[in-house]
Amino acid sequence: MRIMKKETLSILVCPGCRGKLTAKPEIETEDEIISGNLYCEKCGIYYPIENKIANMLPPELRETFS
What InterPro entries does the record point to (predicted)? Predict the structure, then answer.
């Protein structure tokens, strides 16, 4: 998990397939995404962002560690 600064989006990749991630913000400031999702353009997985934290766990592990 990491604080979701917009400037770090360019270096993040999907942990599953290494595909490019696109931000789908719901709430944002000028430099941070408060809530929303990161979407992998290659494999189609969404990674949730809540309270400025991107949860980069695979979907099958999210509930285990939430």
Answer: Trm112-like
Task: Quick: pLDDT tens for 39-62.
Answer: 999 999 999 999 999 998 888 887
Identity of the residue numbered 20: K
Q: How far apart are CA 3 and CA 12, in angstroms?
A: 12
DSSP state of 7: G
Of 56, 1, 48, 53, nearest to 32 by C-alpha is 53
C-alpha span between 38 and 4 (Å, rounded) = 10
- Let me know how many helices (H) and strands (E) the chain has, helices first: 1, 5
Find the mean pLDDT for residues 18-37.
Answer: 94
Q: What is the residue extent of each domain of the chain?
A: 2-62
Is the distance from CB of 31 to CB of 6 less than 8 angstroms? yes
